[in-house]
């Protein structure tokens, strides 16, 4: 399953589309404004003598209406901010996260407004909010940790939608990042031995990234990974010819974009503190002696992680066909050995 980095998920696309729709924006802002005006008007109405029968509830209703008016005003501001964010030129996944963050902040501020107006003073409101936070902290430790994990993902960016990652024992392509969990389209897993999608979705809490290493196979600066193919030949084979032939066949299978990244790889390695790594040629071909007195030919190359299985298959077929066509240069290990 190929996931384009710049393409939003259906949920993200629908959210951003609604924010771009001027008619929907004007309609919602109009309703928020009408509701705010109604709340303010009701605060004057309930002060009439006819509502004296409310008694001690009079002040409570007045505070609720005033808090409602402030909340609707805040929602108008929030809607305007979301519209401005949606017009940005950032990646769609990041725009969606910023919009969700704005909505979350708006929701938290509205709760604080109601707590403030329903208490007699700010000290009581602060104590109430503190007690509520303490109780929620004990009761909702995992969801709160996952919410903090979401902030970490948005701000630090260990991965984004479209990346192929591994977290704990979960391997997959990121298809959605929400407040509390992340969804992966699994590859490999318990059903597959190759780097192909298994057809299963994985949802894990965002708090998991604080407890495990995050492996990102789609690093933006170098979105390729190393891969290798090995096979066995006899000592009678022409190793120099095998090396040249295997490298030539492998280069013929790799696309131009992959080859272009080789120089990027050299540049990045040269910028690291590790000075003893030098890549003179690509791909690599190493030879090792097997315990059964065979020669193991190890072909090492770089590849897009989402195409590694298909590329490995293509290279194996091409290399074996080329070597079989030259039996005077190379001999494979006999079957059953």
User: What is the string of SSEs from the N terminus onward?
Assistant: HHHHHHEEEEEEHHEEH
Helix content: 40-55%
Overall strand count: 8
- The SS-based structural class is alpha+beta
Total count of domains: 3
Alpha-carbon Rg, integer: 31 Å
Q: How far is it from the N-terminal to the C-terminal residue, by CA?
A: 39 Å
Tell me, briefly, the overall form: elongated
Strand order of the largest sheet: 4-3-2-1-5
Unreliable spans: 1-6
Largest sheet: 5 strands, antiparallel
User: Please, what is the average pLDDT?
Assistant: 78
What fraction of the residues are assigned to beta strands by DSSP? 15-25%
Question: What would your notes on this structure say?
Answer:
With 337 residues, the protein is α+β, with helices and mostly antiparallel strands. It folds into 3 domains: 10-139, no CATH class; 155-216, SH3 type barrels (Roll), CATH 2.30.30.60; 225-324, 2-Layer Sandwich (Alpha-Beta Plaits), CATH 3.30.70. Helix content is 51%, strand content 16%. The protein has helices at 10-20, 22-45, 57-86, 92-117, 122-139, 141-156, 239-253, 256-270, 308-324, and strands at residues 164-167, 170-177, 181-187, 197-205, 214-216, 225-233, 284-289, 295-303. The strands form 2 sheets. Strands 4-3-2-1-5 form a 5-stranded antiparallel beta sheet. Strands 6-8-7 form a 3-stranded antiparallel beta sheet, with helices on one face. It starts with 9 loop residues before the first helix and ends in a 13-residue tail after the last helix.
